[in-house]
Structures are given as structure tokens and as C-alpha cells.
Amino acid sequence: MDQQNRPPRKAAPAKRITLARARKPAEIREIFERFRAANPEPKGELESVNAFTLLVAVVLSAQATDAGVNKATRPLFAIADTPEKMVALGEDAVRDYIKTIGLYRNKAKNVVALSQKLITEFGGEVPATREALESLPGVGRKTANVVLNIAFGGITHAVDTHVFRVANRLRIAPGRNVMQVELGLEKAVPPEFGRHAHHWLILHGRYTCKALRPECARCIQNDLCDSPDKRVA
Length: 233
Fold this sequence. Notes:
Elements: H1 25-38, H2 51-60, H3 66-79, H4 83-89, H5 91-97, H6 104-122, H7 130-134, H8 141-152, H9 161-169, H10 178-188, H11 197-207
């Protein structure tokens, strides 16, 4: 058959990814009981002095480490801890303060723009609803969830790479994407653990259940974990 007249090859069928089955409620409760016993009052590692500086810090933390953000924001927040002061400082000056952070040019633009919007539309106050927060430049669902949780005490589940990994490895809320995991956590996490759940999961993923080299030997959930990523001594 002539090459030009050869019928096109059929595309190979996409591989189906089989998710692990979510744990039973009693097992999930045991996981969070252990987290609470080990760290009753977990805290976020981004430094802030009020709801506004928290919002700015979380916006800056995208694709950056908390330590790197804190190093940049300490001198910034010392002179600009309100939307009014941030707008007065201006984009060029903000950029100079945060130039050690990834994507700093766009982030400086967003920080000044969100500060201006807080002044003109919200009376200079950080709003306490997800819809209003997500209307601000540079603020997505994850950032809004963090602010709602820390600044306003809301039971929200901000899913970053650490939460996503741990929720899947421990089968608390298996999901193929961030939204599936977030919705799964909303259903799976017992209400009394909801306030601190995302902090426990973030810290566990950051310091113990690491992406490439999980430190399973010292993991408080070791005997419950059946992840294929588990490192057996």
C-alpha cells in the first residue's frame, strides 16, 4: 500500500490511573489523633503580623519556600504592613524587597494591585469570604483557603504539593488533582480536626513524608501506611 494512502494509526488508549481506596473513618480518625498528640497546636511557617501581611506572604509563597519568603518580607512588612502603606511604597520598591523570590516582578505587581483593590473595594480590610478573596489579583483558591483558615478560623483545606502527596499516600483523600483531594478532605476529616488538618498534613509532608526520600523510619503513621512509596528498612 502506498505510504500516502496508508490509513492513520489509531491512537493508543490512555492509561487509566487507579486510585487507592480511601480509608475507613475510624482509621482516618486514628491518623489525626496521632497528629494532634504529636503537635496539638500546629502553626503555619509564613511570618505575618495581621491578616493583610498574611495574605501578601501567601501570595508571595507560590513557587517559593516559606523560609525564602520570610527573609524577604521581614524588612518589607516592617515598613508596609497595611494596604495603604504598600500602595504608597509602590511597585518598584516592593520589587526590590522581594527580588530574591521566584516570579518577583509579577508578584510585586499583584501585591500592589491587590492592596489598591482592598482600599477601593473593601475599606482597606481583608475580606473573609472565598469569593471576595479570589477577586483579588494573584489570589487563587489555595491562597484564599489559607487566609480563611489562619486569619479567620475557617475550616478549609489548602492543598499544596505536600498535602496532595500525604493525602494520597495515607489514603485520607485519594485524588488525581488538587480539587479532588480538597473535596475529599472536606468529607473525610473529622470536624474536630478540621481547623488544623492542613497544617498537620503540610508539616508531615515537608519534614517526614518527603517526595523523594520519605523518612518512614521515624514516621508516626508508619504502621498505618501502605503506600507503594514507603521505604522499608
